[in-house]
Write a structure and sequence with these properties.
Layout lengths: L4 H21 L9 H13 L18 H10 L7 H10 L12 H11 L11 H32 L2 H12 L4 H5 L4 H16 L3 H12 L9 H16 L9 H38 L9 H10 L21 H8 L14 H24 L1 H5 L7 H4 L13 H17 L3 H6 L4 H13 L35 H7 L6 H21 L7
Helix pairs in contact: 1-6, 1-7, 3-6, 4-5, 4-6, 5-6, 6-7, 6-9, 7-20, 9-10, 10-12, 11-12, 15-18, 15-20
Length: 523
């Protein structure tokens, strides 16, 4: 970062946004230096009191001390909704069946940090308080580091540093911001996935596979990333076949290359599936073996009776999923506890959630449509055909670059699945795919005149599109100043489209903090 001013600015801006997020999320502050900050805290908590949500809320088994109460008061907003599951798993393990919907890498990271990095505070703070502090430290670290990883990925894929720079800055004010800050696995997942994608673009396939494997240990949708490994291997092999003549003498060499590519790709994909598969086996052993019983504290046992939560070996009767041919607890929990399934959320009472998901749904569809109509032949050939522009060394730059194809497909698959099977699309896409940030950066650069005069160096790649009125400088190397701050400070002068894009990011960034931290539903 010392050599790259853009990377330094991405880190600086990400750090500032994370600090502001934590300040707004805190319920009170001993360091009350800012009257404005105190005003916002009082306003949020008076106007929007905590919602009485029917969410997982286990009882505390130890009496909190003075410092524990202070930590809970400051960081209690980090433990809302699903965050309570992660904190409970880190503290008590997988005690209830529905806890198994949350994969173990993030809770293990919280527990390790609480016992190792925060070991000096064990006399002052109980384990839960240290877990909350661990969530603060880890999520801040991962969300800040995910932005430069996205920048590096964008430079490799978009071949347009200005677009990559703007996209990385947009990530710091992501609409899924609250889930990057709360005790959720989104920030860890985003960092691992963006870094893995970047390493794959650099040709570091095995390192990429390792990072993708770690990501699948954090979130179940990480197993979909095996498609990147498969596509990269297929594309590399297909392009090799198109180089040189098709002499029969080379046929044995082709088969040898095919076997080598296929075996390495399948091995890496198996590694990506392994953490998820191992956890399903762990859940099977824990909940389906009637001989395994462990003492359960009475308050937690009473909670299970009151709420209908299943404990391991409840009355010696295994749960229904244990008798399935492929006993996968994850899909059973999603189906039974959260009613996740095809068209199950298409109900009148879910209309508010669909409205909350509309902006990201619209942007995702628009991004896919823009790429398809710009690259129809590339989409029909699945990007496996060598293009003339690539042979001439002048590939198209920006969002419409041919290298974006696999990322658009990935984002579209997530979007279609999320739309028809669940309603948490904003954080689902915001932490899993770079396309949302790339496309919004593309819209701002293509249609915002305020950004057109920033280019200084010569153009090194072909422009993204050739629409009339488009700025010819859209992919030139710009100055290291913050273009996002330039747009925000000149908000009254920017185009309506830019106002809509920035308005979406900023409103969801702020509303998510206000609503989620007060136990109100958020996408």
């Amino acid at each position: 970062s010392r050599q790259d001013p853009h990377l330094r600015e991405v880190l600086r801006f990400g750090l500032c946004c994370r600090a502001l997020t934590l300040l707004l999320q805190a319920r009170a502050s001993l360091l009350d230096f800012s009257p404005l900050f105190f005003f916002f805290q009082a306003l949020f908590n008076l106007l929007i009191p905590d919602h009485a949500a029917d969410a997982f809320s286990p009882p505390r088994l130890t009496d909190p001390g003075l410092w524990d109460l202070l930590v809970e008061q400051l960081l209690g907003g980090l433990s809302r909704w699903d965050a309570e599951h992660f904190l409970f798993i880190a503290e008590r393990g997988y005690l209830y069946e529905h806890n198994c919907a949350f994969l173990p890498l993030y809770p293990l990271s919280l527990l390790t940090t609480a016992w190792v990095a925060l070991w000096p505070f064990q006399q002052l703070l109980c384990l839960r308080s240290r877990l909350l502090l661990s969530a603060l430290l880890l999520n801040s670290l991962f969300s800040i580091l995910a932005a430069p990883a996205l920048f590096q990925l964008g430079c490799s894929v978009l071949r347009c540093r200005r677009a990559a720079f703007l996209a990385a800055l947009l990530f710091s004010i992501s609409p899924a911001n609250v889930f990057m800050a709360a005790a959720y696995s989104e920030s860890m997942f985003a960092f691992l996935v963006f870094t893995a994608m970047w390493q794959l673009e650099k040709g570091q396939s095995w390192l990429s596979g390792l990072l993708f494997s770690l990501a699948s240990g954090a979130r179940a949708n990480g197993i979909i990333n095996s498609g990147f490994i498969l596509y990269s291997s297929c594309k590399r092999f297909a392009l090799q076949l198109q180089v040189g003549s098709g002499s029969l003498k080379k046929l044995p060499l082709v088969w040898k290359q095919l076997l080598s590519v296929a075996s390495s790709a399948l091995l890496m994909c198996a590694g990506i599936f392994l953490p998820f598969a191992l956890f399903q086996y762990y859940a099977y052993v824990r909940f389906c073996d009637p001989s395994l019983e462990e003492p359960v504290p009475k308050p937690l046992l009473q909670l299970a009776l009151d709420k209908g939560y299943r404990l391991p070996s409840t009355q010696g009767i295994p749960p229904p999923w244990c008798s399935q041919r492929f006993p996968v607890v994850y899909s059973y929990i999603q189906d039974t506890y959260w009613n996740v399934g095809f068209l199950r959320y298409f109900e009148l009472r879910q209309i508010p959630n669909f409205l909350l998901a509309f902006p990201v749904t619209f942007l995702g569809c628009w991004a896919a449509w823009t790429f398809v109509i710009t690259n129809p032949r590339h989409c029909l050939t699945l990007g496996l055909e060598r293009r003339k522009s690539e042979e001439e060394g002048k590939p198209r730059a920006g969002f419409c670059s041919s290298a974006v194809f696999v990322y658009v497909v990935h984002a579209t698959v997530l979007l279609v699945f999320g739309f028809f099977c669940m309603h948490v699309l904003t954080r689902f896409l915001g932490s899993s795919s770079p396309v949302l940030y790339w496309f919004c950066a593309h819209l701002l650069q293509e249609h915002e005149p305020l950004l057109w005069n920033e280019g200084t160096d010569g153009q090194t790649t072909a422009p993204c599109t050739k629409k009339p009125g488009q700025s010819p400088d859209s992919c030139r190397e710009g100055p290291s100043g913050n273009p996002l701050m330039k747009l925000l400070l000149g908000y009254r002068c920017i185009t309506p489209l830019s106002k809509c894009v920035l308005g979406f990011f900023l409103s969801y960034w702020l509303l998510g903090l206000v609503l989620h931290c007060n136990f109100l539903p958020w996408t």
